[in-house]
Amino acid sequence: MPRLDPADIGRPLSVGEVAQRSGVAVSALHFYEARGLIHSVRNEGNQRRYARDVLRRVAVIKVAQRIGISLEDIGAALAALPEGRTPNARDWTRLSKNWQQELDARIAHLQALRDQLDDCIGCGCLSLGACKLRNPLDSLSEEGPGPRRILSE
């Protein structure tokens, strides 16, 4: 990739340039914009143009999605950042600390799920021999549909 000319530092980026620099498809950028996660302005030719701080916002979105944070939660976190300012290290620290508790709970749930994979899932099938002991008379159906033992924990 050619080195950036210092004169271009303030130049807004096209959607294609943002896609190339961020590693995100143009369609994903349009989706993020429709969800209010990023913003653009239109030039005289009605083409989207993005400030360079959008690259950091897209990076935050990508990392947060990668660790399983919902777009709704990402949007709420980004909405708390000052508009027009590039998210900085302090912002990222605050965002990531807010997500750590959720991630810890998800990790604990996944570990419990892993440890229970060879046990009854409480599906209500009544076809396994162990179900007479684990789910007699389909009593778990009173708790709701689906695999109750695993979903309830």
Automatic annotation (TrEMBL):
This is MerR family transcriptional regulator. InterPro entries: DNA-bd_dom_put_sf (IPR009061), MerR-type_HTH_dom (IPR000551), MerR_fam (IPR047057), Redox-sen_tscrpt-act_SoxR (IPR010211), Tscrpt_reg_MerR_DNA-bd (IPR015358). One of its GO terms (molecular function) is DNA-binding transcription factor activity. SUPFAM superfamilies: Putative DNA-binding domain. NCBIfam families: SoxR. It comes from Hylemonella gracilis ATCC 19624. Keywords: 2Fe-2S, DNA-binding, Iron, Iron-sulfur, Metal-binding, Transcription, Transcription regulation. Gene3D superfamilies: 1.10.1660.10.
